[in-house]
Design brief:
five-stranded mixed β-sheet, disordered C terminus, elongated, 56% helix, 290 residues, Glutaredoxin, 11% strand, alpha+beta, 2 domains
Length: 290
C-alpha cells in the first residue's frame, strides 16, 4: 500500500503534469475550457513556469516517497512536501474559483491528484488538514477579489453608480427622462471598484462612453449631464418657453450646468462603499482616453 500511495500515484501525477507541459511547449493543452486560459492571465509570469514548479514539487514528493520506503527519516520530508503542495494548490484553486468564471480543469486535476495521494498515504492526517484547507477557501471567499471578466464589452454608455449616492440618482433620473440607454455598473461589485481605482478616480458617478474606438470618461453629475445639454438644446428650450429667451448661449457655464454650481458633483467611492449615507465630494474634470 505504501508503494502505491508514495510512489505509484505520485509517478502518475508527475506524468500527467509532464504531458501537459510537453503539450504547452508545442502550443497545445489537455484543457480547452475557458477557465484554463483565464487561469494563466492571473499569473505574474508565463503559465509554463507554473508547470515547471509542479514538476519540481511532485518530483520531490515522489523522491521522498521512494526513499521513505527504506528510511523513516524521509517520511517526514515526504509529508512536508505533500502538504506544502496541497496548501499551495488550495490557494491557487481558491483564487481561480473566486476570480474566474470557472477554474482551470487541469489545475483541478492536479489538486485532486494531490488529495488522492494524501488520502491513500495517511487518511487521518488529511482529515486533520481539512480545517486548514477550508480556512484558506473561506479567507479567499471573504476578500473582495475582482473578477477576471470584461466590464466594457462594446460601444455604449456605462455608468458606475451606487443606489445610495444622490448624485448618481440625478444622472439616472436624467437618463430615464430623456430615454438615454446605458449599462449600470454597481460599485458593490469589486471588479467595478477596481476599475475605478485603476483609472485614478475616487468619486461616483462615473460615465464611460465608448464609440468608434474612442473612450471618454467623466465623473461627477454636473460634468456628466453637461455633455447632454448642448447650446442647441438650450436654445430650443428657450424658444419653447422652457428657458429664458435672453440666456447667454455663448457662455458654456450657463447652458452646460444643469445644476447650481454650489452643488457637489460626486460622492466618495470608498465612503459610499463603507457608509452609504456620506462621503460626497466635489466632482472632477473630464478625462479623454484614445
Amino acid at each position: 500500500m505504501k508503494f502505491i500511495s508514495r510512489v505509484f500515484l505520485p509517478l502518475l501525477l508527475l506524468l500527467y503534469i509532464g504531458y501537459e507541459t510537453w503539450l504547452k511547449l508545442h502550443h497545445l493543452s489537455l484543457c480547452s475550457a475557458t477557465g484554463c486560459r483565464l487561469a494563466g492571465e492571473l499569473l505574474r509570469f508565463p503559465s509554463i513556469y507554473l508547470n515547471y514548479m509542479g514538476l519540481a514539487a511532485v518530483g520531490a514528493i515522489l523522491l521522498f516517497g521512494l526513499f521513505s520506503l527504506f528510511s523513516r527519516a524521509f517520511e517526514k520530508l515526504y509529508f512536508i512536501a505533500l502538504y506544502t503542495a496541497i496548501a499551495f494548490e488550495s490557494i491557487m484553486i481558491g483564487y481561480q474559483i473566486f476570480a474566474n468564471p470557472e477554474p482551470c480543469l487541469f489545475c483541478l486535476g492536479v489538486y485532486g491528484g494531490l488529495l488522492l495521494i494524501a488520502l491513500a498515504s495517511r487518511a487521518r492526517w488529511l482529515l486533520y488538514a481539512l480545517p486548514m484547507i477550508f480556512a484558506l477557501f473561506f479567507a479567499l471567499g471573504d476578500l473582495a477579489i475582482p473578477r477576471n471578466v470584461a466590464l466594457i464589452k462594446g460601444d455604449g454608455l456605462y455608468l458606475i453608480a451606487s443606489d445610495h449616492c444622490p448624485h448618481c440618482q440625478k444622472v439616472k433620473k436624467y437618463f430615464a427622462e430623456h430615454h438615454i440607454a446605458y449599462h449600470k455598473l454597481s460599485v458593490n461589485d469589486p471588479s467595478v471598484r477596481h476599475l475605478a481605482k485603476a483609472l485614478g478616480i475616487t468619486e461616483i458617478p462615473i460615465l464611460i462612453r465608448r464609440k468608434g474606438g474612442v473612450t471618454t470618461i467623466l465623473y461627477g453629475d454636473r460634468p456628466i449631464l453637461a455633455t447632454f445639454e448642448s447650446p442647441e438644446s438650450t436654445e430650443t428650450k428657450a424658444k419653447s418657453g422652457k428657458a429664458p429667451a435672453d440666456e447667454n448661449l455663448s457662455t458654456p457655464a450657463a447652458p452646460l450646468n444643469p445644476f447650481n454650481a454650489s452643488e457637489k458633483g460626486g460622492c466618495s467611492l470608498d465612503a459610499v462603499t463603507e457608509n452609504p449615507s456620506g462621503g460626497c465630494e466635489e466632482s472632477g474634470p473630464e478625462i479623454p482616453l484614445r
